[in-house]
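Encode chain A's predicted structure.
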Amino acid sequence: MALTESDVRHVARLARLGLAAGEAERLRGELASILGHVSAIAALDLEGVPATSHPLDLVNVLAADEVVPAAGVEAALANAPDPVANGFRVPPIGA
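Encoded structure for chain A:
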């Protein structure tokens, strides 16, 4: 099935993308290429292949949590641009 410029504009609208003049024609070829690749993948025989969420085995790369003492009020406010009464002064909301 050949894609039309109308098809591209419809997909762009669904994705809430604005297209400038001339972009739809350029994207028509790119979208057709993408859909061609998807069709090739859909044609594969995947019987017995387990579903995966990622092609590589992932491991947890986070460090273990360690309890450390808090920095303290003075250290936390040391670089604050405008500290006030053991806190940070911030602009009012909606001002």
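The mean pLDDT is 89.
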